[in-house]
Design brief:
This protein has about 650 residues and is α/β, with parallel strands linked by helices. It has 21 helices and 27 strands. The strands form six sheets. The chain has a seven-stranded mixed β-barrel with strand order 21-22-23-24-27-26-25, surrounded by four helices. The two termini are about 40 Å apart.
Length: about 650
């Protein structure tokens, strides 16, 4: 059992209720929140629906960084709504072009020891500066802005002891890829990761943030580094030295699981198609032809990352068979590169410069050609996430990505035969917060701008006494929220649920056949209840609550899976969908799409804590059979589900 860890110290300072025992429900006070435009529009619509006049947090920031491509009016309509509602509710507004929420928040707002809740799954980036930073659905973030505690399970704590020092050409990205090789992307629900050891002292805050960022891919709630002299150096350089406080685990700290990584022994790694835990060494992939390289995202677009890239590219040209695109993580980084000449070195080499935003990481442009290997310094390579079906997307460090851009194929960067670029940490970052709009002291008179594409959050009906269901779809292992609700060109419909719901499970739709949306609507309109059948690690990936909202809109009442990831399970509860798991995992194989699923007296079972038995009637005419189902719900969860979702509770 863990004791005297840094994570426990932060929890102790913020816990509001609950038992400090692994797996038990607790609630914690949230100090700061962040939202981004793809999830934030719905979050603020939900905040309005709750009647909140002004946020109750110490700090809330609304960022525009996802829906930057303005093909049609929808995205700009969202931006105008977000800017005006931020002014109305007492929220700071980071304008388009200021940068990616996680990097900007790390640079300008993150404070060691504080709690941060964000409507983006990569909010744990803040753990690099010593915050307890957690991703959640938009409704949970809206509740936090309203001053309500955040509900979660008291975690199991995985301690990771780092020793040694990274060799040249080996990156912080390789540390988290090694962690993904060890832990994989599933089976870590309810855990938090704490890094410690002598090796930590050799890592800058941006390097630490790369590691905590991709803790999201592990499926853990958050990852935390201590706040030490390196943290102080970063905050001093950002002009925020007063925010620094020293934080670390006790000398007698113990962990529920201990992992040791010797940084001296690491080598460049890659996450191969199409999962962040499909890890191979770059040496083993050497010679693989590459058609596209993209460097950026909230994982690897810091000043240090791009200065290394600029140093590698200086005086050289990229391969004629490769396109290289670079997206700085923030305006601060982009302007510093422009002022010191590094941007010129990057452009001279043949790179294309993208704006400071998420862009290709969420399928917003720069899709690769068919049958083309793309190397990306991003955090996810789920199938089709690039915008190209059958994509071959590899996740690598900036050093490895740049080496491939120069060579035209995957190559260990040390074999390029060039000197490793030495990058000094800035003693003073360029500080210009003019792209962050402060709200007025009293925002009650602010007019909130609502263009025609701004909808309203849909409201579910209360849970029926019994489920008269139909299995509308059966999905495979590791079904991600990208699979459920695709991003890319569809993101602009986030404010319009009826439109966005048309593409639920688009990746699984078959040409010439009814879509999932059509099948679900048909079941709903027939007076029956839609059921989704999932396998292991269902709902991994993004925090997008639309993966619950849109299925709910289409009449889905129940999800049955082998295992459900944390954020998605919470989103299902928030919108009145019952998350159930198979008591016997082999029952997954017995159910087919189109089978009828009857769950009698489900309200009574959930209220009394009774076990649930469902009767499955195969569509093909075979004999009916029974399956046992489990649920892991708190009393508050049950209350929300019975009401048909959190917005139905007054």
């Amino acid at each position: 059992m863990a004791k005297n860890t840094l994570i426990q110290k932060i929890l102790d300072a913020h816990i509001v209720s609950g038992e400090k025992k692994a797996g038990e429900p607790i609630s914690i006070q949230i100090d700061q929140t962040l939202t981004q435009d793809a999830t934030g529009t719905m979050a603020y619509l939900e905040l309005e629906a709750m009647g909140v006049k002004k946020v109750a947090t110490e700090l809330s920031v609304s960022y525009v960084d996802h829906n930057m491509m303005q093909n049609g009016p929808e995205n700009r309509n969202d931006h105008l709504y977000l800017q005006s509602v931020a002014a109305s509710k007492g929220v700071r507004f980071s304008r388009p072009g200021n940068g990616i929420c996680h990097q900007v928040h790390l640079e300008r707002f993150g404070v060691p020891g504080k709690t941060l809740l964000g409507s983006d799954s990569h909010t744990p980036t803040g753990g690099g500066i010593g915050m307890m930073a957690i991703g959640a659905g938009g409704l949970d973030v809206a509740l936090a802005m309203a001053g309500q505690p955040f509900r979660l399970a008291f975690p199991k704590i995985i301690g990771v002891e780092l020793t040694g020092r990274l060799s040249n050409w080996v990156s912080a990205k390789d540390i988290i890829l090694k962690m993904l090789e060890i832990l994989s992307t599933k089976g870590n629900v309810g855990c938090m990761v704490e890094y410690f050891g002598e090796g930590v002292k050799t890592l800058t805050v941006p390097q630490r943030a790369t590691i905590t960022n991709m803790g999201a891919e592990l499926g853990v709630t958050c990852s935390v580094f201590p706040s030490d002299e390196m943290t102080k150096e970063f905050l001093d350089a950002q002009g925020r030295g007063a925010d620094w406080v020293g934080l670390s685990a006790g000398p007698d700290a113990e962990y529920d699981r201990l992992i040791k990584i010797d940084l001296n022994t690491l080598e460049p790694l890659a996450a191969c198609p199409s999962s962040p835990d499909n890890i191979k060494s770059i040496a083993a992939l050497k010679g693989t032809e590459v058609g596209q390289v993209i460097i950026g995202s909230c994982t690897n677009s810091s000043y240090r990352d791009l200065m290394i890239v600029a140093g590698m590219l200086k005086g050289r040209k990229i391969s004629e068979n490769v396109t290289l695109s670079i997206a700085p993580g923030s305006k601060q980084v982009l302007e510093m590169l422009a002022r010191n000449g590094a941007l010129a070195d990057i452009i001279s080499a043949g790179a294309r410069i993208l704006e400071a935003g998420c862009g290709p990481c969420i399928g917003q442009g720069q899709s690769p050609a068919n049958d083309t290997v793309t190397l990306r310094t991003f955090n996810r390579n789920f199938p089709g996430r690039t915008g190209t079906k059958g994509d071959q997307s590899y996740l690598v460090s900036p050093e490895t990505a740049c080496a491939a851009a120069l060579a035209g194929y995957i190559i260990p960067p040390a074999e390029l035969g060039i000197a490793y670029p030495e990058v000094e940490n800035p003693s003073q970052f360029l500080i210009d917060d003019s792209m962050v709009i402060l709200p007025p002291e009293n925002g009650e008179g602010v007019e909130i701008i609502r263009k025609p594409t701004i909808g309203k959050p849909p409201v579910n009906t209360p849970l029926p006494d019994s489920i008269d269901g139909v299995a509308v779809i059966k999905t495979p292992d590791k079904t991600s929220t990208d699979d459920i609700m695709p991003a890319g060109v569809h993101l602009k419909h986030r404010s319009n649920i009826p439109e966005y719901a048309k593409v639920v499970f688009e990746r699984f739709n078959e040409l010439g056949k009814e879509t999932f949306a059509q099948r679900a609507a048909k079941v709903r309109d027939a007076g029956k209840h839609g059921v989704i059948i999932g396998r292991d690690s269902y709902g991994q990936g993004s925090s997008r609550e639309h993966a619950a909202i849109c299925p709910m809109y289409l009449g889905i009442k129940v999800l049955i899976a082998m295992a459900i990831e944390r954020i998605h399970a919470a989103n299902l509860v928030n919108f009145g969908i019952v998350p159930l798991t198979f008591a016997d995992k082999s029952d997954y194989d017995k159910i087919a799409e189109g089978d009828s699923i009857h769950i009698p007296q489900i309200r009574e079972a959930l209220t009394s804590g009774s076990s649930i038995t469902a009767t499955v009637i195969p569509a093909g005419g075979a004999a009916p059979f029974e399956i046992k189902l489990n649920y892991h719900l708190t009393d508050e969860d049950v209350k929300i589900i019975l009401a048909g979702g959190r917005l139905n509770l007054k």
